[in-house]
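BUG: 3D viewer hangs when loading the predicted structure for this chain

Environment: internal workstation, default settings.
Expected: structure renders.
Actual: progress bar stalls at 90%.

Input used:
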Amino acid sequence: MPRGARLDAPGTLHHVIIRGIEKGVIVRDDEDRKEFLRRTGELARGTGTGIYAFALMTNHAHILLKSGEQGLSTFMRRLLSGYAQYFNRRHRRVGHLFQNRYKSIICEEEAYFDKLVAYIHLNPLRAELVKSFEELASYPWCSHAVMMNKVHYAWLDREYVLQRFGDREGEAGKAYAEYLEEEAGINREKELSGGGLLRSHGGWSNVLSMRKQGIKALSDDRILGGDSFVREVLREAEDQGGQLLSAEERARRIVRDIENACRKEGIGVAALRSGSRKGRLPAIRKELARKFVHEYGLSLAETARQLWVTTGAVSHMVR
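Structure tokens produced before the viewer hung:
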């Protein structure tokens, strides 16, 4: 059954956030950084994935991309599994490198593209990996340097980004640089790091105002966009036969599934969440964990919280 949490139609704009497990590093030196970007570019060309912005940090990475014919999940699975194998071999380590599943947010392009590019490109500056805009312009591990024509990655669609700022390259580059400096003074972390009602409609005050006017807006924590965009994305995905669940419906189903499983076995929910391994308890947890992850698209960490076990235990259950 298709996962509920992935809206994965080809040609969809995604903001992807990748994090190291337990906040650990995903790159240790420039050789790792080169390899991560080499694999990103090779897969982008091979899958028809459009890459518009990236920032490769120490323990996480941001990528703004448009999925190709094989969808986002194929691209990300091949990128992360291949790179993790390389990293473990090179550094003689074992175990997971990345934190659970990557986070992907479908984005309304017209409303958010420019902001997302700027937000991603400002990451190294805000994290003080570079000290100034001058250093950022030549920093090879962020695609701002590509926009400034100081670094070249053939697989990054520089033209697509710059055309948002002007028809001629010189004018577009200048307008882009000015826009980036303006955005440096604005904190968009909460606005752009996820979807949902508050982010899509400009904060809680706007949501309250809409409610007073009797306006009901649809939201989804996987989608960054307004009401009509959210409805369009969900409708298109449903037309393609996907099983799509809102965050609220997913939460209701999780509660229901836990209660039904406990009722069927004649035990209380407290017993399931007690940590005990007596009788059928491990088997029940495993069945629920696999359903939550594979059908509902829940992260390993959230599944662990629902079942009161460790993330490592959930990882073992679903492998």
